[in-house]
Design a protein that fits this description.
47% helix; alpha/beta; D-Maltodextrin-Binding Protein, domain 2; single chain; 5-stranded mixed sheet
Amino acid sequence: MRLRKKQAFSAVLAAVMCLTATSCRELSQAVGANIIEESHTAISRPIVLYYSWWGNEIRSDYTIRGINEYEQREPGVDIRPVASDFTGYKENLDSLIASRKEPDIMVINSAWLPEYSPDGEGFCNLYDYADKIDLSNFTETELSYGTVNGKLNALPVSLNAITFYYNRYLLNGYGLAVPKTWDDLFTCAEELSQHDIYTIESSERHYWKMLIAHEEQLTGKAAFGEDGFGIQNVISMLEFYKELIDRKVISRKEFDRSDFLDGRTAGAMIWVSDAQYNISPITEKGGTAVIGTYLVIDEPQRFGWYVKPTSLYAISKYSEDPAAAASFLNFLMNDARMTELQGTEKGVPLSKSALETLEAKNLLRGVPYQASQMITQYADKLELMPAKMEDLDMVNCFFEQFDLYYFGQKNVAAAANAFLQQYSFS
């Protein structure tokens, strides 16, 4: 402030001196030059945008490269990356949103949208920035995945589903075929367990979806809704999970991708969007990764498997420059160079222009692409995943009660009842 005041005083002093030594035109030029210089200083300040996402080092690497290239194109924009693993990402975002300090552009899970924006007012309405974001790349159905109360809160990147991946080389070595039914899992386990190899490995939040699929196929009942699962369904899920463990289809250890890559398990059940990191490297270990079908019982009453947007991009309604944020979001979703960097790491993109880029550059290949094709193949059977299915507190409670049942501290009915006292499927 003192400097600016000193500059202003100098300008006035120059003006007084100019009254006797210069013309009024020269005075105007002198004062005008001073104003232009100060204005240029203000205008040259970069637009700072914070962008947050979760993911492994592969995702972070190409994202940082994309940011660097965008900043070279737009020298007046400074993108500040905020990256983390999925674990803890939401807790951090919860606190930032509560204090209105969330990043300008952020990746969110579709299950969080009802929580963060129940009335559609939680994020910017991206329809207001259609001059910055090419929304013509998306169908009405695709836009509906991020629409709340008629307002486009977020754009979906791709579609995601829990998918089965197997090491065909390992299975062939024991005379086994890729499983297609639940019974096939047990058949594989009878042979593989003799060699200390498990048939399938995953995380508890994916086992949860698997158990729901099996129970829906058995009963024909949708897990969530007004007539959602009751105590008998939960008992059945607990008992089936115990059977999978007892018959050595699965282990109780935490998911470790090296078990699949190194042949300690024959299969892995993960998201399509995680295939490149967790599955693709198996060829380096001498294996052969193949995609398995969605497991079913004979004559299922429901299909039981669900699909959802992989992730969505949203813009904070408190962003100081939402138009600049929208331009960067368009780069992330539709730009040819960013698409080339990302490839199919997040699944096959929904954006038409991004898809055309991948096709032109022959990048629609590999395990991630094959897994996305599985979603397309079963599009008429896969249902849109309800947000409640991804309630991690609910998932954790289920497996806490399972442990009490498994180790004999509760009978199965008591464990199921305790779970339902805390959480409801309706």
